[in-house]
């Protein structure tokens, strides 16, 4: 196999997702990982908000800590590149995906297709909710390990992650819902 695609239980791939990602990887040999935009839905399937990370590899690399560079269950990975940098590592618990993406970005490009590829089920029992503190500690460790003092987005990402660390999860979810609702109506 040349490629591997990710998806989580409860999530649903948009039609043609895999074909589009495979075609993109076939056409872009320097790209090790390609994700897609994601519609976050409730357990009942009601749309909540869209995740639209940058498409361009350069922008994605620059903004890697300000927002998630790739939506993990939306990605297709080039197997040889993953073998080269090493697979998921337990060293950064609950942020193994970010660790892998950062290591891939050191040697390759990563990108996102700027179109809907996944319906992601928001789950209060998921890692982002149940292992939040561990995930934030791992994310901050990765941020410090890969920190570029000349990149203003790394500074903004540090501030954002520290704010997440001290803000209760439910409060953060309310803020996100409000911001995404305001953005949707604008």
Tell me what the structure shows.
The protein has 186 residues and is of the alpha+beta class. The longest helix is centred in the C-terminal third of the chain and has 17 residues, at 169-185. It starts with a strand and ends with a helix. Strands 1, 2, 3, 4, 5 and 6 form a six-stranded mixed beta sheet that branches. The protein has one domain (3-185). It has eight helices and six strands, in the order ββαββαβααβαααα. The mean pLDDT is 94. GO terms for molecular function: transferase activity. InterPro entries: Nucleotide-diphossugar_trans (IPR029044). This is Glycosyl transferase.
Question: What structural keywords apply?
Answer:
186 residues, Nucleotide-diphossugar_trans, 8 helices, globular, alpha+beta, Glycosyl transferase, transferase, transferase activity
- Mean pLDDT over the residues: 94
Q: Which consecutive residue ranges, at least 5 long each, have pLDDT under 50?
A: none
> What general outline do the C-alpha atoms trace?
globular
What is the share of helical residues?
A: 40-55%
Largest sheet: 6 strands, mixed
Number of helices: 8
Proportion of beta-strand residues: 15-25%
The radius of gyration over CA amounts to 16 Å
Q: What's the count of strands?
A: 6
Q: Helix and strand succession? A: EEHEEHEHHEHHHH
Instruction: Please indicate the count of domains.
Output: 1
Protein structure class: alpha+beta
**Distance between the amino and carboxyl termini:** 44 Å
């Amino acid at each position: 196999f040349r490629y591997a695609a990710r998806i989580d239980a409860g999530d649903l791939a948009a039609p043609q997702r895999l074909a589009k990602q495979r075609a993109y990887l076939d056409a872009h040999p320097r790209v090790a990982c390609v994700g897609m935009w994601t519609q976050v839905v409730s357990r009942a399937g009601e749309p909540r908000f869209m995740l639209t990370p940058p498409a361009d590899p350069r922008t994605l690399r620059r903004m890697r800590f300000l927002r998630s560079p790739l939506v993990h269950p939306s990605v297709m990975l080039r197997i040889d590149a993953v073998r080269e940098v090493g697979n998921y590592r337990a060293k950064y618990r609950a942020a193994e995906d970010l660790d892998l993406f950062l290591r891939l970005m050191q040697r390759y490009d990563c990108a996102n297709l700027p179109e809907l590829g996944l319906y992601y089920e928001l789950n209060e029992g998921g890692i982002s909710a149940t292992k939040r503190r561990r995930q934030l500690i791992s994310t901050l460790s990765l941020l410090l390990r890969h920190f570029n003092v000349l990149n203003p987005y790394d500074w903004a990402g540090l501030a954002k992650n520290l704010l997440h660390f001290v803000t209760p999860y439910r409060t953060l979810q309310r803020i996100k819902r409000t911001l995404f609702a305001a953005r949707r109506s604008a």
